[in-house]
Amino acid sequence: MQKDIVKTAKKILGTVLCLFVISVNLMPQMEVLRNLDDEIALSEAGDLMANLNGNLPISVYDTKGVAVSQDMSQSLSQIDESDQTLVIKLCGITVKQVNAVKRDTLMLMPGGQSIGVKLHTMGALVVGFGDVVTYDGKKERPAHKAGLEVGDIITEIDGQKIAGAEHVIKLCNVSEGKAVKVKVLRDEKTMEFEILPGFDAIENEYKLGLWVRDSTVGIGTLSFYRMDNKAFGALGHAITDIDTGSLLIAEQGEIVLAQVTGIKKGAEGEPGELLGAFSSISRRLGSIEKNSTQGLYGTVYENICCEQYPDGLEAAYHEEIKEGAATILSTVDNNGVKEYSCEIIKVYRQSEREEKDMVLQITDKRLLDKTGGIVQGMSGSPIIQNGKIIGAVTHVLVNDPTRGYGIFIENMLEAAG
Which domain holds residue 193? Predict the structure, then answer.
């Protein structure tokens, strides 16, 4: 009988302990701990103290072993201006350590202007292969036979740096049918091929049997420029070749002010588009120096003032970005840059997401009526939350044009170098 009582008591105790552990894990404080980054800004430490304040006996100690107040009005920046290692304890047991670091303040001038992009790529991009028709009617593809692939960037022929598509044709003809040594860039690796040009009986010239491209144009949105050195960021995603999908490596280029001439409204399954125009006399805004998966970067020629925020805004660090209300700056008609309301509905902390760090939803009726939500050409529109630039719009969700992805401004600044 006594053994049965003990056994039953152990079962009851085990059940109680399980329920206790489950209830503890469901408490808001534990959710805060689970989502807490290993590094936070020193200025955010006060909010952390407040969020950890609750029913659980959680205490936080600074680098000197002094307990930090959980009063929301007090932050570590008021205690010590140097970096801190926070030790978080539950019932006196250390459960997590967090680095609280002092962040530099970087002022940015927000964009939102519609821009035309004129990009000249490095070398010549292989976008396809064509037939070389010989005198006896045979069809040859010398470059493809030698091992070149779509997406390769031809950088040199016989030791000469390639200046563009026309240069490839010229050097091929100069060879007079002799084999040429061709250097290409493929997946960031340099490779060398020897190609024997074929003589095309129809066009009466030597050919490698390939199609190449050396430039592209498009429409996007300026995201920001740094107020200290005029370095700009735009688009928030890469410019890729329309045929191959390959990232275009910028040799030189320019952004100019574009005019929105119309809107193709977005709908479910059909992404919309801003129709824009620019010309050789459009206002020149800046030079392009880099095209990357995180956007387009370079230097503006002069100050470009934002009417809504003429004094500029601070750049936010990723840990400051929260789910909730925000705004975007964008140009969707001839009335210039306007501010529209949106909602940050998901924030991702994984750095490998590249240009898809957060999900936002357009809530502004004016913008929804005009565009249906996010459309092509709005990529790069700066996102603002709590008085800081937190990122830029990058993509629209095809099945729901009211929603799209955004990139952290912190990641854009890092990509800009």
Answer: 131-208
